[in-house]
Specification:
Layout: H1 6-9, E1 16-20, H2 26-32, E2 38-43, H3 46-54, E3 67-72, E4 85-91, H4 100-110, E5 111-122, H5 124-133, H6 135-139, H7 150-158, E6 163-170, H8 174-183, H9 192-207, H10 210-223, E7 226-232
Parallel strand pairs: 1-2, 1-4, 2-3, 4-5
Antiparallel strand pairs: 5-7, 6-7
Length: 237
């Protein structure tokens, strides 16, 4: 399930692409399929990194020409040289981080003068509904500790000589699922409607039928669970 629009992210042969907070590698492995790109996936979770590493072999049939590596790292102190990264992804990460400004400072340090950055965070109003429906949703270890206003976050990022160039929503169909998940969080058995909705999302992910694609095209701009922001440093130079 991709949040980043790789058609817009403009990965070119020879680029170094970092996926900061890569989790199980969904964006890292997609970037790996681009022509002759060096991909580095970084995360704190050893278990997630093991899963990501195990999925590299699944990409062999696509005959990728670049490379992908996964490593454990703290986003507050990246093991990367200054101005060494062409493209950087930070998807669904900052809402988990107490010192997200420290992450932005490290991103600023490693990104090249003509680099491009993609950040995604949960959209504020669907997230507030989740918080109001279930306190445990945000108190679960590793959960969301803040709700971002996307425009405020954009202004924070633009302090680092980066300019927002595009914004879109993603995964609107997932919003009702998470509302239901929060509503029945403490249920002893998972209700049928939640199981049914999960099967719907899996079916949609695998089949991508025109009807659900059309629904998301209409609803993503205002209801997409994620807001995806793109920044280009060259816009300000």
């Amino acid at each position: 399930m991709l949040t980043v629009d790789f058609d817009y992210f403009d990965l070119q042969p020879g680029h170094v692409c970092v996926d900061l907070g890569c989790g199980e590698g969904r964006h890292s492995l997609t970037a790996y399929l681009q022509e002759n790109v060096t991909v580095i996936g970084l995360d704190l979770s050893h278990q997630d990194l093991k899963t990501a590493q195990s999925r590299i072999a699944d990409m062999a049939s696509y005959n990728p020409q670049g490379s992908v590596d996964f490593a454990q790292a703290n986003g507050l102190s990246l093991p990367l040289a200054d101005h060494s990264v062409d493209r950087l992804i930070c998807s669904e990460v900052l809402e988990h981080i107490p010192n997200y400004i420290g992450f932005l400072e490290e991103i600023d340090r490693v990104l090249k003068p003509d680099g491009r950055l993609c950040i995604s965070v949960p959209r504020s109003w669907p997230e507030r509904v989740c918080w109001s429906l279930c306190d445990a949703y945000r108190r679960t270890p590793g959960g969301h500790i803040r709700i971002f206003n996307a425009s405020h976050l954009s202004r924070e990022v633009e302090r680092y000589t980066l300019a927002e160039t595009r914004r879109h929503g993603a995964h609107a169909l997932h919003v009702p699922y998470w509302w239901l998940k929060c509503l029945f969080w403490h249920a002893k058995t998972e209700p049928f409607i939640l199981k049914w909705y999960h099967r719907l999302l899996v079916w949609d992910l695998m089949k991508r039928p025109w009807l659900t694609r059309a629904i998301e095209a209409v609803t993503n701009p205002w209801m997409g669970k994620s807001v995806v922001l793109y920044f280009d440093r060259s816009e300000k130079h």
